[in-house]
Design brief:
The protein is an alpha/beta fold and 282 residues long. It has 2 domains: 119 residues, Quinolinate phosphoribosyl transferase, N-terminal domain (Aldehyde Oxidoreductase, domain 3), CATH 3.90.1170.20; 146 residues, TIM Barrel (Alpha-Beta Barrel), CATH 3.20.20.70. Helix content is 41%, strand content 20%. Helix 10 links the parallel strand 10 and strand 11. The model has no long low-confidence stretch (mean pLDDT 96).
Length: 282
């Protein structure tokens, strides 16, 4: 799956490298490695992972050495066992060493998201529920993190505040109730679906009567979720959120909700262990 068309890869690579290089550049590599030295290297994973971000990692190396030769051994979205070679590189040693950390940081982070996402997706397989992400992302990395979520087999929810109406508890509090909030959103005529967060069963019928297109069932335990599913009876899609962990997601999915949203997959995914090992120097 390609990177999002609105993602500026060149700009991301330039800004990330500038953060790492500072004013003086890679003083260690420049001091210790001859300018004409070349290396052949292998990038491999040191634990089982789902891969995400290989094209981005390669862009860091190409930015500093346009003539580098890169052989990509797997694809984003693939499962890779520990010891799998992800990429083989041959090029200028200084450039490769300088780009190494930026490339690995990005690949480790995105593959960490994809790996954790896949664990959740596998856990609810067969239930019919779809895992979706949230806007709980690291500032500046949302596009990439949501890409990694897709590589892990889940779906994206809102990318930004302008591509979906989601009325949450604070909106409801200011408006004076769920019905008032939904009516106000519909009157605004944004052309977007109106989704409403509810945390009590009693809020459901007033929300539907006011015209809510979708309900987010917040922090409801499975018995209450089942009650909500029965009450709504397919009139609008239902999304469960809150209290979702690997040990609880299957029970949540089995209640019959359509979607389960989870901020943990982007907000708390641990980086995976990927290394760049030099196979040969000459």
């Amino acid at each position: 799956m390609p990177l999002p068309p609105d993602f500026d890869l060149d700009d991301f690579v330039t800004r990330t490298l500038a953060e790492d290089l500072g004013v003086g550049g890679d003083v260690t590599s420049n001091a210790t490695i001859p300018a004409d030295a070349r290396f052949i290297a292998e990038m491999n994973c040191r634990e089982p992972i789902v891969v995400a971000g290989l094209k981005i990692a390669a862009a860091f190396f190409r930015s500093l050495d346009p003539d580098v030769t890169i052989e990509q051994a797997v694809a984003d979205g693939d499962r890779a066992e520990a010891g799998t070679v992800l990429m083989r590189l041959s090029g200028k040693a200084r450039a490769m060493l300088t780009a190494e950390r930026s490339a690995l940081n990005t690949l480790q982070h995105l593959s960490g998201i994809a790996t954790l996402t896949r664990r959740y997706v596998d856990t609810i397989a067969g239930t019919g529920a779809i895992l979706i992400d949230t806007r709980k992302t690291i500032p500046g990395l949302r596009t990439l993190e949501k890409y990694a979520v897709r590589m892990g087999g889940a779906h994206n929810h809102r990318m930004r505040l302008d591509d979906g109406v989601l009325i949450k508890d604070n909106h409801v509090a200011v408006c004076g109730g769920v019905a008032e909030a939904v009516r106000a959103a519909r009157a605004a005529d944004t052309g977007l679906q109106v989704q409403l967060e509810v945390d009590r069963i009693e809020q459901i019928e007033p929300a539907l009567a006011a015209g809510a297109d979708r309900l987010l069932l917040d922090n409801m335990p499975p018995p209450v979720l089942r009650q909500a599913v029965e009450l709504v009876a397919g009139r609008v899609p239902l999304e469960a959120s809150g209290g979702v962990r690997l040990e609880t997601i299957r029970a949540i999915a089995e209640t019959g909700v359509d979607f389960i949203s989870l901020g943990r997959i982007t907000q708390s995914a641990p980086a995976v262990d990927i290394g760049l090992d030099f196979a040969l120097s000459r």
